[in-house]
Amino acid sequence: MEIYKKIVSPLLDQRDSETWHVRAREALHLAEANPLTLKLLEQFAYQRSRFTDGRLNVVVGGIELDNPVMVGAGWDKVGRAVAGLHKLGFSGVEVGSVLAYPQPGNPKPRQWMIGPGVAMNRLGFNTPGADVVAENLRRYRESGIPIGVSIGKNKDIPDKAAPEMHAVVARKLYEDAGYFVINVSSPNTPGLRKLQDKEPLTDIVQAVNGAMDEMGERKPLFVKIAPDLTNDAVNDVIQVVADNGLTGIIATNTTVRPDLKAKYGEQWRNEMGGFSGNDSDFRRMATEKVAHIYNETNGQVEVIGVGGVNSAETALEKIRVGARAVQIVTAIRGEGTTLPGRINAGIIEELEREGCNSVSELVGTEAKIYG
Questions:
Q1: Residue 97 known to be catalytic
Q2: 135-149 burial code (b ≥16 CB/10 A, e <16)
Q3: DSSP E strands: which ranges in 215-299?
Q4: d(CA 22, CA 75)
Q5: Of the candidates 315, 307, 262, the residue with the CA atom closest to the CA atom of residue 284
């Protein structure tokens, strides 16, 4: 790990971030070509094997995970490295965001490492479209790996058509998704975040629920929120979740706060894009949202925590305030391939120190600190 953080990561930070991200994803995809190369991937995992322990098992919205550390949406937008990421130690992978139609995204360059473990992106929902992602995910149907699909709308689709466009993606990926996430919190599509408001969000979730009803039965459905929402706005999302029988909330996406960007250079202050990664202020924003949801609902709404998770300590921070699982995106770049195993090993050490038999015993134990 030290070699990666001191030598490899700084070298990568000097190169085009998106290019090297795609190369890393495709390297994992190639490793999936046959069972031998997939098994060899474990040499890059923590202690050269996929870390497992029954005390790490969690259930989120009926989804069984063998540990609480998942890959968040944005790392594998196209669904080509699911088995590779799982072999490195992640319990599941959220793919996307996936749109109904292909979309190139914003002009390049559009992804940067602006500090150690700190990123900014304005990718803009770049995707090959739902049909291609569905074809990619088909190979994992017998894998048993929990796969989530984050769904959104193309930027040239009017807001009034947003419900049906989300439903289109849900139908096309229904057979391949273990759960769905409505992503109306990306800052990189103009006007998208206003779809987090109560009325448009209700229309979208009802359309997605209707699409799942048509396909057979409802799969777990989450809404992903921005860290920049006020608590009153979060309460509106909670109400939509409760009124429409959704599973829960993923908290949170990237932030657009100029002051956080400017900490890493004044030139970033007004640069369009979402900020994420190993920054204490950003991490706290996300953690506070997790705690607020847990406190407001008495733990009745399932929460997956995202934002600044890069160690066992920061994962446990999210879990202790109410997250049943955590997701990682930026830290994979900053910390390397051993990260999920190191986090899970650290969680086991903490369970032993506290005399707990399961990570679930820690969920929400410190949420009132933020109350």
A1: no
A2: ebbeebeeeebbbbb
A3: 221-225, 248-251, 274-277
A4: 9
A5: 307
Do residues 114 and 261 touch, judged by C-beta distance below 8 A? yes
Tokens linked to 363:
């969920």
Measured CA distances, 203 to 44, 167, 244, 326 (Å): 44, 11, 10, 28
Using CA atoms, how far apart are residues 354 and 67, in angstroms rounded to an integer? 18
Q: Count CA atoms within 13 Å of residue 129 on its CB side.
A: 7
- From the list 147, 146, 110, 140, the residue with the least C-alpha distance to 125 is 110
Q: Are the beta carbons of 52 and 65 closer than 8 angstroms?
A: no
CB 173 within 8 A of CB 205: no
pLDDT of the residue at 8: 45
Query: Which member of 91, 150, 185, 186 is catalytic?
Result: 186
Name the strand (E) or helix (H) holding 24. helix 17-31
Q: What was the pLDDT predicted at 3?
A: 46
Indicate the pairing of strand 274-277 with strand 118-121.
antiparallel
CB 119 within 8 A of CB 172: no
Q: What is the pLDDT of residue 189?
A: 77
Q: Is 239 exposed, middle or buried (0-12, 13-18, 19+ CB in 10 A)?
A: middle
Closest CA to 72 of 53, 46, 45, 90: 90
This prediction's pTM: 0.94
State the 10-residue block means of pLDDT for the chain, 371 residues long: 49 69 94 94 95 97 97 97 98 97 96 95 96 98 97 93 96 98 84 81 96 96 95 94 96 96 97 96 98 97 98 98 98 94 98 97 94 66
Mention every residue, 6+ apart, whose C-beta is less than 8 A from residue 36: none
Q: What is the DSSP letter of 159?
A: G
Residue in the structure block whose two tokens are 């707990």: 356
Q: Can you read off the two tokens belonging to residue 279?
A: 């920054």
Q: Which two tokens stand for residue 20?
A: 């090297």
